[in-house]
Amino acid sequence: MAGNTYGEIFKVTTFGESHGPAIGAVLDGVPPNLALDVADIQKELDRRRPGQSKITTQRQEPDTVEILSGVFEGKTTGTALALLIRNKDQRSRDYSEIKDVFRPGHADMTFLKKYGIRDYRGGGRSSGRETACRVAAGAVAKQLLIQHSVKVIAYVHSVADIVAEQCDFAVIEENIVRAPDMAAAEKMIALIDEARRNLDSLGGVVEAVIQGCPPGLGDPVFDKLDAKLAHGLMSIGTIKGIEFGAGFAATRMRGSENNDEFVNEGGEIHTKTNYAGGILGGISNGEEIVLRVAVKPPSSIAQSQQTVTTSGEQTQIEVKGRHDPCICPRVVPVVEAMIALTLADCLLLQKTIS
Amino acid sequence: MAGNTYGEIFKVTTFGESHGPAIGAVLDGVPPNLALDVADIQKELDRRRPGQSKITTQRQEPDTVEILSGVFEGKTTGTALALLIRNKDQRSRDYSEIKDVFRPGHADMTFLKKYGIRDYRGGGRSSGRETACRVAAGAVAKQLLIQHSVKVIAYVHSVADIVAEQCDFAVIEENIVRAPDMAAAEKMIALIDEARRNLDSLGGVVEAVIQGCPPGLGDPVFDKLDAKLAHGLMSIGTIKGIEFGAGFAATRMRGSENNDEFVNEGGEIHTKTNYAGGILGGISNGEEIVLRVAVKPPSSIAQSQQTVTTSGEQTQIEVKGRHDPCICPRVVPVVEAMIALTLADCLLLQKTIS
Amino acid sequence: MAGNTYGEIFKVTTFGESHGPAIGAVLDGVPPNLALDVADIQKELDRRRPGQSKITTQRQEPDTVEILSGVFEGKTTGTALALLIRNKDQRSRDYSEIKDVFRPGHADMTFLKKYGIRDYRGGGRSSGRETACRVAAGAVAKQLLIQHSVKVIAYVHSVADIVAEQCDFAVIEENIVRAPDMAAAEKMIALIDEARRNLDSLGGVVEAVIQGCPPGLGDPVFDKLDAKLAHGLMSIGTIKGIEFGAGFAATRMRGSENNDEFVNEGGEIHTKTNYAGGILGGISNGEEIVLRVAVKPPSSIAQSQQTVTTSGEQTQIEVKGRHDPCICPRVVPVVEAMIALTLADCLLLQKTIS
Amino acid sequence: MAGNTYGEIFKVTTFGESHGPAIGAVLDGVPPNLALDVADIQKELDRRRPGQSKITTQRQEPDTVEILSGVFEGKTTGTALALLIRNKDQRSRDYSEIKDVFRPGHADMTFLKKYGIRDYRGGGRSSGRETACRVAAGAVAKQLLIQHSVKVIAYVHSVADIVAEQCDFAVIEENIVRAPDMAAAEKMIALIDEARRNLDSLGGVVEAVIQGCPPGLGDPVFDKLDAKLAHGLMSIGTIKGIEFGAGFAATRMRGSENNDEFVNEGGEIHTKTNYAGGILGGISNGEEIVLRVAVKPPSSIAQSQQTVTTSGEQTQIEVKGRHDPCICPRVVPVVEAMIALTLADCLLLQKTIS
After folding, report:
1. Can you tell me the distance from the alpha carbon of B146 to that of B211, in angstroms, rounded to the nearest whole number?
2. Which residues are registered as beta bridge partners of B309?
3. Taking CB atoms and an 8 Å limit, are C352 and A78 in contact across chains?
4. Residue C81 and residue D281: Cα distance in Å, rounded?
């Protein structure tokens, strides 16, 4: 209710502040007898963790996960599955700089307005660190997806004005920016490096493709599949927009162009085009689900910016420290996790119908 | 759980098929002692109803609403508030054309795949007619918003390539396309008329501005204000994308440009710019909330399109009848309704904190 | 959230005041392709309706139900299923007697304390009339139970000190008090008649047996099957207690006596005794589920009672009108309905595990 | 959804198996700025912990709790509040005895039927150990109750046939059985001791009184205050029944006797009697809330009992180890915790109305 839980049947509740003792997640509704090893989770966390390349923050957090419950002899038991990640890089540092000053683009001000109290050590609950729990929980969801032959692939579609022209899934993990186009990746990396040197930051677009999603997922009214995916993905702090299939481009198309005609391909009904992005009337149609999210440039920059103190005085701030000049590469596993969690929930909900 | 309910505290459950006896909504969690007259609801329904202008469908549905419970002597009582709208234009027509054929762009196929049964009389539960219940419920939510001095204004920002250059709220209801720019409105109307004559349809962008939203609404993790609004708005059948503030354009901005600097304006903390669209870290910051949704061109067009029958045979279909060539003008009140419902929920949730 | 919805997957939302235009229910999560006729629902409503015998209230409410949505050609469609019952016996009567006076044992006072407003025409939302919607919704749930070969049988176990000594299910509907013992029934009827003549009322115990419940229903922690049944049954206004199996008597038994030993009966595991009442660790074990609820004597009696006015003045009240001297016979179908709704939910939830 | 979460606004999710690495709880919706020290929680855990007296199990579990998040500088922050308790007494023991044999009265069989997999090390998720998390979470809820001047007092009303004749709250924690009557306590302790020596176990009744509960809590239909309390309390594994106020005794009373007449006492409306137990129409009326729960005799006894193996063979079992001969004294803090959690939720929900 206070928004730390996601999902209806396959549910995850997360907790933890960036500079408290630990962060973690409790999954409820995970079906029993699902193979699950701690390495399945650690592998995904390693894709998100800081310090993984020269274009990410150099902060060191090993993000080692421990399974506390819900798994017995390598299989899920159907009971609550708890995951714990101890915070390591929470050294007693000097927070005086940000304790009494609102960082532009951050939740410092809105948090204080909401709760009347704020854990000023870093982002607290609003820190991007919170997404590690999503990735850990998403790794469990992915095990369910594997069982249903559903695959989620996310990648960096663009950084600022540089757009991936090719879409070769095989190279995504071959470059540190996670673009599906090696040539574009090189340009993106160079641009990010330049932004870092300029004490500035860059945004971009992350695209995701869901393969093998069975038709019938999603509900026809308020819980349309795209509505649920939008909820999950827009809840990632750095995301400012989302579109499915043709998305905003569909607003400039005629109906005769945008409608995907149905064809019978060897006994299976498919659409000739996929402007709908795999979802019709809020329900998956069996085609690839395609979506894109708008990732804003990180707010933490070391340039001097105008702001106010908690007591309202005008001041300047330079957000020092080790920040990501472009968060897109690290958002990729988070996007995959939120999609996996959403689909896991839809897959289980669909079982109540048949 | 099957997706016919929206909201957590201020909740609405809707029901009804386009060609069944009635549609309706039950609101739960409406605070007591809120002034409410049936005319408050009817007024909003009239803005959404078919046949309201030459550029909408000419179907006739008076959409007269009856309050069945939850209101006593002009005030809400705090108990479940039920609204009923009888279907009038459900004349026994010949459905043979669409009974066994999947209309491109519609949910016919996905519905059948999901449930194994389909009410083939029109769109059934997937019909846009369902949004009348959202508008009726949204009218109740608006009464709560008025009490909190929050105002929601939606309008047509663009139709195909024609974009409103001005944003004069005063003229929105002065033109049948609901654009905030009379000159652009004229061009939009002409283009829609042309599409109609060509048996085609047009999409567009609807923009919404929320004024007077207090800071502190929305929760920091999964139920961010933008995530909840995205859920609600993406659940409108015709919408394919959403963005807040600078949205997708933010992906091409530097952090130093996109960050909204804080300023003290006469004792109140504001931001100099509003690229964030009024939401920081998922929590309202007191600025105007600004969002845009992508509305696809309606799928029902009388042009011949390729499709398949329910038994998989290749065929052609022309979706005849009285359809909207551009749904944007009628989506405007639905967008307002979903925003009002979402904000009403957030306002009540916020009371549990203080 | 305001408590007008019950269930998680198989959900029912009810609405309506006793003297408003109508009452009704919206079911969500009803699986598609379930055979359902309006007569299935009417039959159950007729078992609950007033005026059915000389020992019930003589008020006349035909309680005719209309299906508004969710059913197509005799089958459920999987969409929201709405049921409507128009109030007929809501004639403009003189409410001055109860408008400003709190009836002892009723919710008049607590309702006003809670909401600051009260629909003083009869019980409003607190009226026992609200249970008609539960019975209607329960009739839909029963169709799902029939599909799973689960049977719910409730009956009057005792009225005041008169206890049914026999338990012959065949005679329950053969006597107007709904006892499983014809001899006891006669005595109960006589006692109720006497109470009516004395302007007084009587309580009793309603017992229910669930046959054919598969093992595995219910969840091990907060949503134990008995906890969910207790929630549902205790939400019937007139019920003050509930027990399962040996219940309170188990508090005076030794563990060696109360433990039900397991036996293998022809390949099936059963228990020799059933003190647990069919539930172990919150999960059904395949034995008959047995429970009893305590039904208080109705609060509406025509005897003079001391009370206060809404402005706090001491006064006397005689609650005139046509009231039930013992509500037990009419509670029987309500108990069955709440059990059916609870089991339907558990049956669907269980599908998400396998 | 899988039942590891309790509450709607003030929510708790628990996790952990009795012999896994840890158990714990995550609270969501805890209001910010509530004073909270780890000692507040530890104090309650110490009341529940094993080995506290000669009449409880001699198992040693220090149950030391760690706060992982949601508290900053001695105050709650409004974010998810996580509590962790490491299991200490989970020494590698020989489970062969219970691995393949169903213990009578336990959830071994139903668990396996439900999930098809079972953590056979002790009770796993069905262990009474799970209630430690409830007690820890309840301690947080109690801080909210203190703020609202609400007090919850539970005690042992009876053990087998020995009933506390006096009700002196001051002596409850002065005797190891937690009875409000020192003379009865002595007899209870002797009887429990005797049962232990006989390798048997005893049940009893735990009563609870809620003082200072404001009128208006609870919702009129499905979420009546008594229904919610019944759900919470019946979800404690060992409880087989619950009653409010006169409870089952009310079934033998006349309405003229059972109705609590209203009186004006110095400007406040009270009832002369309290047969209703402080709840009218599901809403608190400002009187003391009184309830009783039936606690069954523990199922783990060292006497030989008949049972079957997981493969269906008839066998004998003696459940050895260190078990509680009567769980009532340790159930007292669990009952208080579930009541505190329920009331905390109702208090916050009530804020959404005013």
Report:
1. 11
2. B101
3. no
4. 28
CA atoms of D208 and D242, how far apart (whole Å): 11
H/E stretch holding D30: none
Q: How far is B23 from chain C (nearest CA, A)?
A: 7
Question: C107-121 burial string, b = 16+ CB within 10 Å, else e?
Answer: bbbbbbbbbbbbbbb
| Average pLDDT of chain B, as a whole number | 95
pLDDT number for residue D322: 82
pTM over 0.90: yes
Q: DSSP of A117-130, one letter per residue?
A: ----STTGGGSGGG
**Interface with A, mutate which of D14, D68, D90, D99 (most A CBs under 10 A):** D68
Q: Map residue C306 onto helix, strand or coil.
A: strand
Rounded to 5 degrees, what are φ and ψ at D218? Answer: 100, 155
In order along its 354 residues, chain C shows pLDDT tens digits of 589 999 999 999 999 999 899 999 999 999 999 999 999 999 999 999 998 999 998 888 899 999 999 999 999 999 999 999 999 876 556 676 778 999 999 999 999 999 999 888 878 899 999 999 999 999 999 999 999 999 999 999 999 999 999 999 999 999 999 999 999 999 999 999 999 999 999 999 999 999 999 999 999 999 999 999 999 999 999 999 999 999 999 999 999 999 999 999 999 999 999 999 999 999 999 999 999 999 999 999 999 999 999 999 999 999 988 899 999 999 999 999 999 999 999 999 999 998
Chain-centroid distance of CA D167 in Å reads 20
Tally Cβ neighbours within 10 Å of residue B292: 24
**Closest to A351 (Cβ–Cβ): which among C32, C78, C351?**
C351
Angle between helices D328-351 and D38-48 (to 10 degrees): 140
**In the block, residue with structure tokens 């998922």:** B282
Measured between beta carbons, the chain C residues lying within 8 angstroms of D251 are: 158, 160, 203-205, 294-296
How does residue A94 score in pLDDT terms, banded at 50, 70 and 90? Answer: low
Burial of residue D288 (number of CB atoms within 10 Å: 0-12, 13-18, 19+): middle
Q: Give residue C120's pLDDT.
A: 85
pLDDT tens digit sequence for B258-268: 999 999 999 99
Beta bridge partners of B316: B306
Whether A178 and A172 have beta carbons less than 8 Å apart is answered as yes
Contact B58, B51 (CB under 8 A): yes
User: How many other β-carbons are positioned within 10 Å of the β-carbon of residue B39?
Assistant: 10
Domain count, chain B: 1
Smallest Cβ–Cβ distance between A220 and the set B105, B126, B283 belongs to B126
Helix (H) or strand (E) holding B340: helix B328-351
Choose the closest CB to B352 out of D9, D79, D220: D9
Q: Is C140 within 8 Å of C41 (Cβ atoms)?
A: yes
In chain D, whose CA is at the least distance from the CA of B221? D79
| Cβ count near D190 (within 10 Å) | 14
Residue to test with chain C: of B27, B79, B347, most C Cβ within 10 A: B79
CATH of the domain at B119: 3.60.150.10
Q: Where are the beta strands (DSSP E) in chain C?
A: 5-6, 11-15, 22-28, 65-67, 71-72, 75-76, 81-86, 151-159, 162-163, 204-211, 239-244, 262-265, 268-271, 279-280, 283-284, 289-295, 304-308, 314-318
Q: Which residue of C has its CA nearest to D248?
A: C294
Domain containing A290 equals 5-351
ipTM: 0.98
